[in-house]
Amino acid sequence: MASRVLVTGADTFWGGRMVQALEADPSIEVILGMGTSAPSVPFERAEFVRADQNYSILNRIVQATLVDTILHTFMVTNSVGLSQRAMHEINVIGTMNLLAAAGASGSPVRHIAVKSSTLVYGSSARDPSTFQESTPRAGPARHSIERSLLEAETLVRDFSEDNPATLVTVLRFANVLGPHLTTSISRNLSRPFCPSIFGFDPMLQFVEEADVVRALLHVTLGQIPGLYNVAGDGRLPWSEVASICGTHLIPLSPYSPLKIHPLARLFDLPPELEDLLRYGRGVDTRRLSATGFEYLATSVGAVYSFIRALRLRRAAGKSSSSYTYEHDVEQFFRHSPSVSGSTDR
Amino acid sequence: MTDGRPVGIEKKRSTAVVPIRIPPDSPDPAGDLRLSDVDEWGRSERFRAVARALYEPIYSKWFRVEWEGLEKVPTEGGALLVANHAGAIPSDAPVIMHGIEKELGRPVYGLADYFFRTVPVVGTLWARGGGVSARPANAYRLLKEQGQLVLDFPEGTKGPSKSFTDRYQLRRFGRGGFVEIAMRAGVPVIPIAVTGSEEAMPVLFRVPTVAKALGLPYFPITANLLTMGPLGIVMPFPAKFNLRVLDPIDFHVPPDQERYSKSRIMEEAERIRGLIQESVYDMLRGRRSVWFG
Fold this sequence. Notes:
The complex is a heterodimer of chains A (345) and B (293).
Chain A: E1 4-8, H1 13-23, E2 30-35, E3 47-50, H2 58-65, E4 69-72, H3 84-102, E5 111-117, H4 144-162, E6 167-173, E7 175-177, H5 184-189, E8 193-197, E9 203-204, E10 206-208, H6 209-222, E11 226-230, E12 236-237, H7 238-244, E13 248-252, H8 271-279, H9 286-290, H10 299-316, H11 327-335
Helix pairs in contact in A: 1-6, 2-3, 3-4
Chain B: H1 45-62, E1 66-68, E2 79-83, H2 92-104, E3 108-112, H3 115-118, H4 122-129, E4 131-133, H5 136-145, E5 149-152, H6 177-185, E6 189-195, H7 197-200, E7 203-206, H8 208-214, E8 220-222, H9 223-228, E9 242-245, H10 262-285
Parallel strand pairs in B: 1-9, 2-5, 2-6, 3-4, 3-5
Antiparallel strand pairs in B: 6-9, 7-8
Helix pairs in contact in B: 1-2, 5-6, 6-10
C-alpha cells in the first residue's frame, strides 16, 4: 500500500491536481510535492519542495523521507511555447535523473507511476484504427515531442527491467479535455474559428480531466504495474467536436507547409496537432478497464465537459480563486506549534 | 487628519468577493450527446444510405451485376472476402460491397491501401462510406472482435495497374498476409471471381514519371480517358459484371497463434489465387459479349 508519495511537477496543472487528490485519501501518510516554481493550487497537508527540473536533490529527498511511491506527472505533452531543448531536458533528462535516484542502492521506492501520452503512437496514414499498448508506431517519430516521450518511456522500460523489485506503471493518456485544462486543442476550440486540414476529418478520442486524475490515483493506490492506454470510450470526428463547441472550422491547405501558411499563424497549431488533424488516433483501453478502472466520461462526454465549463466562464466570468503560494505562510501552518491539527486552515 | 482616524486608512468600499466554489458539472447522461453518426471506423450510416442510393443505378443499370453462389457468403460472423482486382480505378470494390449489402443486408468493410487516407476529401469519403486502411490490426479487429465481413484484394495495386494486355491474369497475392489474418482471426476465406472489371476501365499504359511526381502508386492512361476526355478519369465503360462466389475455405488451425507456418500461408495463398484464376477463365469461356455478358 502506498503511504508515502512523492509527486513531481507539483507546480504544474497535473501535479497540483494529483497532490490534492492524494490529500483526500487518509491512508496516504506523507505527500511531497516537487516543482520548479511555486505551486498554483493550495495544498492542505502536502509539503512542497522546490527543485530544479533535473531533480538534482531528489536522491537526498528520497533517502530522507523514505517515500515508497513516486508519481511522475512532470512530462511535457504539448510542445507549444517550449523549445526542443527544454522539452528534452524535462522529459528525458528529468526522467533519467528521477529513475537514477529511485534506483539507487537502498532506495525505499517500491512503485513508480509515469504519466505519458498517446503521442508516442504518432499519427499517420499508415496507422491502424486502434492502437493497442503493444502496437508499435507505424513509422519513426516525426516531432521532437514524440521523440522525447518515446525516449523517456524507453528509460522507464529499461529501469523496469533492471529493477524487477520496483513496480513500474506507465499511463498513456489520450488528448485531455475538461473544465480547467488549457491545451492547444482547447484553446483552438474556445475561439470562434478553429483550424482543420482541408479534406480531412479525423477520428479523435479524448479523456476527461477527472478521469486522468482518477486513473493515476487508481494505479497508485492499487499499485498496479504495467503499460496502459487511458482514453474515453468512443471516437468522434473533428468536425463534430467543432460543432459541439460552436466553433467554425477554417480549412487550411493540406499541401502548403503550414508553418508558412498565413492562416496557420493565427492558430495554435503545433506540428503534432497538425498530424492529428489529418489522421486522428484511436487507442484500445480494455487493458486498463480489466484492472477495474471505470471511466466517468466518454470521449464525447469530455468534449461536453469542456464546453459546458467554457460556457459558464463566458457567461459568469472567471472564478476568482487565484492562489499565491507563500512559503513562510505554508511553513507556519504546517510546523508552528501554535497551529492545532484540527483547525489546519 | 485630525478627526481621530488613524492616518493611512481611508474610507473605501470593500471590493472583496465572496469566494465561490463552483460545484462539479454533471452532464446529463440521458440522451445521446453525439451530433453525427460516425463510428470508430469513420463510417457514417447516413452517408452510406445516400451513397447506396446514388450507386444503385450504376450497379443495376450500368454494370448490370449478376451474382452466382451468393448464398455461400455467411449471414453472420466474420469472413474474409478475397477477389481479383482490375481496372485503373477499380469498380470491383464498390460492386462487391454494394451487392452484398443489397442482397444480404450485411455491411462489408473494404480494405484499401493506406494511400487513400492521404488524399484530401477522397480519404474522408472513403472512410465515411465504409473503407478501412489495409492494416493487419484493422482486419483482425473487424473479423475477430466485431465479426464483420471484410473485403480484401490481395493483389493490391498490382492488379488495377496492370495493362489491358495482361487482363484477367491475376498478379501475385501479396505475401499471403490475408491468409495469416484469417488464420489468426479463425474465420473462413471466401474467394470471389469477378469479370467485367478489366473492360470497365482498361489501362493502356502507365506513366511512371507522372506517378512519381504526383506521389501516386501508379498513373494509368486509360481507354476511358482517350474516348471521354476528363470525364473518363472517373467514368467506367458499361461492361457487364459477373461475380462468382466460391466455396469458403477453412484452414483448420487454432486462432491467435504467435506464428503460423510461412510455407503453409504461401501455399494457401497460391491455392486461393489458383481457384479464383480458374473461375475467372471459366466465366470468360461462357461470356459471349463484354457488354451483354
